[in-house]
C-alpha cells in the first residue's frame, strides 16, 4: 500500500514538472513566475529586459547560461511573467509607437543632449519612454516626438509647460504612476477636449497638478460615463484654460459621449507625494 502511494506521489510530481515545462512557466530564485522568449534578429539583452519590465541583472540571474550579455537568434531564454496591468501598458505604448518618432542613442549622448537635439526637454522624454532616471545607453531607442498631429499637439503643450518648470525650478519633475496606497483626490469642474485629427485611440490628458504618468478617472456628469486617461503633461495657465480642470484627447472625449467643447466632469486620481 505504501509503495503504491509513493509511486502515485512520484507520478504526480513528474506530471506537474512536465506540465510546468510545457507551459514555459517556472520560478527564479526570487520565486517570481517566469515565461520563455525566443530571441529574434536585432534583439539584445537590454532590449529584452525593457520589453519584460525588468533589469539586465535580473534577466541574467534567471538565465545563468547567458555569457557576456550575448544572446543568439533562435535562442530560448527565461523572462519574467508579464501581468495584465503591464500588458495593458504595453498595448498603450504600441499605439503610441505607431505614430512615434524613434531615435537611437549614439555613443556618449545624454538624455539632455538628445532632448535639445529634438526640440523637447528631459522631463518629457522620461515620461514618453517611462524612464526611472536620466540614464541612457548607446543603441537604446527612445521616443522623441510624434507624427500624429493630435498627439503632437497635446505633447507640444506638455513639453512647453515642463520646460518652463525646469527653467523656473531648476529641477525635473519625477514621472509618477498610480499607487493604490496613496490618498485619492476628487475634483469637480469643467473640462475641455482637443478637436483634431484622429489620435489613434490614445486616452491622454493634460492636468495642472496631477503627477505626469498617473491615471485619472474622468466621469462625464451629464451621462455618468467614465474613462481612465493618462496624464502626459501639465495644463498651462492660459486664458483658454481659466477655470478648466482637465483637457482630454478626442478619443477620451468620444468614450465619454461628449457633445460640447466644454462639459462638467468629476475627476479621481492619486495624490502627489
Task: Give the SSE layout.
Layout: H1 2-23, E1 26-27, E2 33-38, H2 45-51, H3 56-61, E3 76-80, H4 84-98, E4 100-104, H5 111-117, H6 122-129, E5 141-146, H7 149-169, E6 184-193, E7 204-206, E8 215-220, E9 226-233, E10 244-248, H8 250-255, E11 262-270
Parallel strand pairs: 6-10, 7-9
Antiparallel strand pairs: 1-2, 2-3, 4-5, 6-11, 7-10, 8-9, 8-11
Can you walk through the features of this model?
The structure is a single chain. It contains eight helices and eleven strands. With 273 residues, it is α+β, with helices and mostly antiparallel strands. The chain has a six-stranded mixed beta barrel with strand order 6-10-7-9-8-11. A three-stranded antiparallel sheet has the order 1-2-3. The radius of gyration is 23 Å and the shape is elongated.
CATH class of the domain at 20-82: Alpha Beta
Q: Which regions are unreliable across 5 or more consecutive residues at pLDDT < 50?
A: 2-31, 161-178
Number of helices: 8
The helix/strand class is: alpha+beta
What does the average pLDDT come to?
A: 75
End-to-end CA span? 63 Å
Topology, number of strands: 11
CA-based gyration radius: 23 Å
Form type: elongated
Bin the strand percentage.
15-25%
Task: Say what the CATH topology of the domain at 20-82 is.
Answer: Membrane-bound Lytic Murein Transglycosylase D, Chain A
Order of helices and strands: HEEHHEHEHHEHEEEEEHE
Task: Tell me the strand order in the biggest sheet.
Answer: 6-10-7-9-8-11
CATH superfamily grouping of the domain at 20-82: LysM domain
The largest sheet, given as strand count, sense and whether it forms a barrel, is: 6 strands, mixed, barrel
Instruction: Give helix % range.
Output: 25-40%
Tell me the CATH architecture of the domain at 20-82.
Answer: Roll
